[in-house]
Structure formats: C-alpha cells, structure tokens
Amino acid sequence: MGIISGFSKFDRNQRLAYIADHSELEVSKILSFNDYCAPNENQQRVFSEMIENYIGNFPTPIGVVTNMIINDEQFIIPFVTEESSVVAAASKAAKYWAERGGFRAEVHTMTKKGQVHFNWNGDPFRMHQIFPQIQGKLLNSTHDLTDKMRQREGGITGLELIDKTNELTDYYQIDVSFKTGDAMGANFINTCLEKIATTLQNLDELNSDQNSVEIIMSILSNYTPECKVRCWVECPVEKLTGWNKDLSCNLFANKFKQSVDIANLDISRAVTHNKGIFNGIDAVLLATGNDSRATAACAHAYASKEGKYKGLTQVTITDRTFRYELEIPLALGTVGGITQIHPLVKSVMAILKFPDASKLMMIAAASGLANNFSAIASLITTGIQSGHMKMHLSNILNQLNATEQERNLTNEYFKNSTVSHSVVYDFIMQIRITS
Ligand code: MEV
After folding, report:
1. For residues 226 and 100, what is the distance between their CA atoms, to the nearest angstrom?
2. 62-108+227-383 in CATH: which number?
3. Over the stretch 210-254, which tens digit does the pLDDT of each residue have?
4. How many whole angstroms from 254 Cα to the centroid of ligand 1?
C-alpha cells in the first residue's frame, strides 16, 4: 500500500472504496457503513463533519438507569455502554439505595488549570523580581477573551510562576487557574494560554539582547484535583439486607469493607475496582458528550496522589453505620463542545432535566458509585459471573443467529444454569441436531 495524500478530500464513498481496495474489508460489507447513517440529511452532516476522514457512524446502545436518587432528587440516567451488565448493575444499586435514603453528593470546587511552559535564559532571581510586575500585563492581555466568561463569574482566577530551573535548565511554568462555569472550557482555556504565551514572548522586561523567552507549549492540564466531587451512601448496618439472603448484614458489611480495603492496598485489585467505577462514569460521559479520556486520565492520576495507586472509594463502619464514599475529580461540562451539536446529547440532557455542570458531576459520581457498589456486592456474595453472563446470553444468541424458538428454549434452560459461551453453543447445536 503506497502513501496516500488527499484522503480527507475524498467523499465518503471514495474513502470506503479506497479502504476496500487496500484492506480485507469485503466490498459487500462496505454497505454496512451506510446502515447506521442518520436518515435526516442535516443530522447526518453533523456526524460527517465531526471528524476527519469520516466513513460512518458506530452505534453503541443507550439505556437508562432508573430509581437513582441523589440529594433527594430522583433521576433517570442515560448510559451509553457496550457492556451488557452495566445498566442492570447500576439500576440494581440505584434501587437498593433508593430504599435506604438514596445517594448524597457534593461538589467541592470547580477550578481548572492550564500551563504555559517556557524557557528563559536569565538569572532565576531576576525572574522572581520581574514576575510580579508583569503578572497584570499577562492577565490584561486576555481581557477581551475572558469578557463573556467574567460576566458569568468565571475567567482567570489565578496566575502563578513556577520555577522549575532546578529540574530543567531555564525552565519555568506559568500556572493559570480558571473557572469556566458550566462549560468544560478546554478551548477557552487553551486560547487564553496561547494569548498569555504570546504576551510573555513580547514583553520588554524579559526579552532583550541578552535574554529571551522561548515558549515550549501552552495547554490546559487534564489533572483537575480542584474539580472534586464527593458522593456517598450510608445506612445502619442492620439495613444492609436483601442483596443476598445467605449473608448476614454484619458479614456483608465486613466483607464489603475488606474488599474495598484490598483495593486500597493492592494495585492489581485497585485498577479493576476503579474500572468498575468507570463503567458508570464513562457511560454518563459518553451520553452527555463529555471527554471520557480526560476524565479517566485525571481520575487514575488522582488514585495515585499518595504515591501509590489506590481504589477511589472508602468504607467506614462507625457506630453501626455503614458509609461508602467515592471522591473523584470530574471536570465536566453541560454547555459547549459537542453538547450543543450532537442530536442525542440534547435529548440526554433533557432526560437529566438540564443539569448544570456541578449537578452533572454529582450524577456521574453517583453512577460510578452505583456500578461499583453493585460489583462489590455481587463479588462478595454470588460472584460476578452469574449476573454478568445472564446479561451476556443474548449477545451469544445473536452471535449464533439463534431463531426465536431457540432463544426461548435457551432462556428458559439458563434461568437455572450457569451461562458460558461453550455451554450455550453446545445447547443450541443440540437443538439444531435434534430438530
Ligand atoms: C466489570 O466490568 C467490572 C468489575 O470487574 C469491577 C470489579 O471487579 O469491581 C466487576
């Protein structure tokens, strides 16, 4: 295959034809990329112009978690996920806690940060003398850009020099703090940072025949520990009934606590534990058009803030009260980005009753805690596979192109038997041989 130039100028059909010519995609399968295009031309344009080299839409199911109560308010929460058991697991925990007072959540701060990374080849002592004099100029240079955000009580809230010359010769950062209201604000932050960088590069105070500023890069930081939400559930230990009738409330509480303590001391378990939290958080972020990669990168760094990767949740059992808490940084937005563009994100926001960014942070955190609670509660009782594989059964049946009759027989049989791919396969083959 030779190097291709101008692929992005091709139309969608030309791109698909090129791919079929240069890959193992059968020509007959090209049409499958048409199956998921939006029927409405305007909506289809939204998708086709969202990314470069677009060839089609890639559908993922959207479902809803019901009975979620957060701070006494009831929500129906849309989840976008490909994992069969995620919505069921979150819904089960949501209902369980709805009967025990619901989830509680609070947002602590919503400050975001960006950095201008630069070199300056002068005496660091001089830099520290000069910086307070130029701070105002740097800030003023962004005034036009921050005007609208300041009207909404946002904008730049701090501008600080960080001297890194001990670690890297001549290297400094300007750390800029932002409040971006209900927007995630990535573009706003990056635009401001680039303006500050240009101003810095042109300041007489730092640029002369002897010394000059060399900008390395200007970019927001996705590490947002100042965008923190705390979410918890709590009830008397005696009320921890019903998840599994074979386990007493005390044993449930103690085993639950130990499983969470294990995630706090063992990285192999911690990563899986936190992945379970992200089953819910990611599903909400995808449904609401938020950046799930930024959020995951941040939360996993946050999980290592004590120098060791840990689980993001804590259990306490005090005076016979069981409390389960998640603390997580989530820099989310409900305006801007694709929230105003994606046709389904708009509907998702309506289902959520148009939350502001702070409420969405609480919704996402509660969803993560719900999924994680469900996973732990199953792990310490029945194990995860029975519920997980029951939900996965229909995927296996779809893979085997099962008929309606085969589905009915299989669903009936596996009500009381353990599901695995090979056992279901054998079961279907047996039906096919004997019929
Ligand atoms: C599966 O998607 C998530 C779990 O592995 C999470 C956990 O182990 O806590 C069940």
Report:
1. 30
2. 3.90.770.10
3. 999 999 999 999 999 999 999 999 999 999 999 988 899 999 999
4. 19
Higher-confidence position of 390 and 257: 257
Instruction: Please tell me if the CB atom of residue 279 comes closer than 6 angstroms to any atom of ligand 1.
Output: yes
Pick 112-221's CATH classification: 3.30.160.70, 3.40.190.10, 3.30.930.10, 3.30.70.420: 3.30.70.420
- Ligand 1 proximity of 368 Cβ (cutoff 6 Å): no
Predicted confidence band of residue 296 (pLDDT cuts 50, 70, 90): very high
**Are residues 323 and 233 in contact, defined by beta-carbon separation less than 8 angstroms?**
yes
Record the tokens describing residue 184, joined without a space.
Answer: 């995630």
Q: Could you identify the atom of ligand 1 that is nearest to the CA of residue 89? A: 10
Instruction: Domain ranges for the chain, please list them.
Output: 7-48, 62-108+227-383, 112-221, 388-434
pLDDT value of residue 426: 93
The finding on whether 149 has its CB within 6 A of some atom of ligand 1 is: no
pLDDT at 110: 94
- Which residue has a Cα nearest atom 9 of ligand 1? 273
376 Cα nearest atom in ligand 1? 9
Residue 75 CA to ligand 1 centre (angstroms): 24
Q: What's the predicted TM-score (pTM) here?
A: 0.92
Can you give 312-373 as a three-state secondary structure string? CEEEEEECCEEEEEEEEECCCCCECHHHHCCHHHHHHHHHCCCCCHHHHHHHHHHHHHHHHH
| Residue 389 pLDDT greater than 80, yes or no | no
